[in-house]
Amino acid sequence: MPLPLPHLRSAVRRVTERASLMRRAEALVMVLIVLSVLVLMLDSVAEVHQRHGRLLHALEWIFTALFTLEYLLRLWLLRSPWRYARSFFGIVDLLSILPAFLALLLPGLHVLADVRLLRLLRLFRILQLPVYLDETRHLRQALVRARRKILVFIGVMVLLVVVLGTVIFLVEGPGNGFSSIPASVYWAAVTMSTTGYGDITPQTSLGRLITACAILLGYGIIAFPTGIMGAELFAGVLDSKRPRRDGCQCPCRCGKGGTAATRSGD
Questions:
Q1: How far is the C-alpha of 171 from the C-alpha of 178, rounded, in Å?
Q2: Can you list the domains of the chain with their CATH numbers?
Q3: Which residues of the chain register pLDDT less than 50?
Q4: Are 223 and 245 in contact (CB under 8 A)?
Q5: How far apart are CA 97 and CA 121, in angstroms?
Q6: What ranges make up the beta strands (E) of 52-179?
Q7: Which of 22, 99, 103, 172 has its CA 20 to 30 A from that of 241?
């Protein structure tokens, strides 16, 4: 006699929660993600597509079927399926399997060649694997804590780029390739990032001096976001390892824990 649907779901849920099975499933999902992205990248090469297009297309459908099955199974097993469906990783999972089904429904649209690139979103699923969940959480919390500092840093960078671009435009002018202030701002951004494409170069001595100062300034500024994120990540790791009594922490972050009743009896 077959099990009722709720009992079947509970039985499958207990099986999937086994630690050994979870580790194997994580490894399998990671391999499938890497292989699916590799197939998509190879299919973008004209020679490979011409020789092995049918094989790559079949592999794409196999990966799509597996990821679709995994997505539906996850929705079926989770106690809060719609919460997962609306989450970032749930949306990533859905967008990564949509292109194949859109190609079936709308085969004549040329835009689907670009929509297929949504499959690259599967790479984000690696961050969803339990082995990386703590690291992903620490990174997200560090970004949230440092958001004001990062916004201030971006504002200062934009200001410096605009000022340097305007100054170099006044010094060099259209005759030396700096045709407008936006073009000069582009030069300032490329120079301060120490990329230096070389498509626009100053010709005067003063312009070259400004370029040297911009490069040195760029080297010094690049370290700022690294230091901000490093400090926030370190603080987040320390907070997560800080011992907590009775599973809670004092709101004043003094290191004391316990419930209100416990603290009142001290």
A1: 9
A2: 5-128 (1.20.120.350), 147-264 (1.10.287.70)
A3: 1, 110, 246-266
A4: no
A5: 10
A6: none
A7: 22
